[in-house]
Every structure is written in structure tokens, then in C-alpha cells.
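Below is the record:
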Amino acid sequence: MENEAENYCLVAIHHYFQRQSNF
């Protein structure tokens, strides 16, 4: 369970950074 939450966080952060970079 913990791993899943961490994965989700990492994915969200990655997407957020990607979006910021795109902008």
C-alpha cells in the first residue's frame, strides 16, 4: 500500500514538472 501511494506521488510530481516545463 505504501509503495502504491509513493508511486502515485512520484507520478503526480513527474507530470507536474513536465507540465511546468512545457509551459
